[in-house]
Amino acid sequence: MKMTFPVFFLLLWSGLSFAVGPAPVAKPTSPVAPAAGAPALKPAMPAAAPLANNNSEKAAQELNKELDGIHQQAQQVLNQVEKLAPPAPALPPHDAPPLIPGAPVLPENLEGMRQKLMTLAQDERFLKAVKDLWDHPDRNKLLAIQAAFFLFMIILKAFVQAKTVHWFKRLFLGFLFFVLTWAGILYVIPLVLLGEPFGIFTGTLWRVLVMGG
What's the pLDDT tens digit per position in 73-93? Predict the structure, then answer.
């Protein structure tokens, strides 16, 4: 019986496969243990899950909602306070009449005082009198003489009132000694002791501050 070439080739391949045997199957290899003293390898961290991002977004949204609620509550409280608080009084205009009859308006009063001070600062006789009073040799004696005069007038008043019986005369003498005491302390003694500079000083103050000249 004659064999054809394909049948012969098939038988030859089958014989070779039987002789050689099946191909070895690769076995899984166990991981190699690290050497002694080598640092241990840390396992790789797993990738962040999409669920964590969703939770953070939800937490941020809830925080924003809470902040908006707090802001709205604060605004409501402010609105209630503004409703309960009395309105602030409006300031009067510059040319408005004074609230108290006869009282001067404050800005005009300040302007007038400024003009009076400028008048004193530009008065050469007044400035010279001030300098002469400061440089006067008897300036340091003035206080001692005024104190001695004050004590003398108190003793004299007590002696005169002791001689008086009527109450009206005692009252009149008390007022008279009061005027004489302070007139002597504030004007007569300084004028006698310091001379003309004190007269110019007091006269200029009276003319500018009181009389408005």
Answer: 777 776 776 666 556 555 555
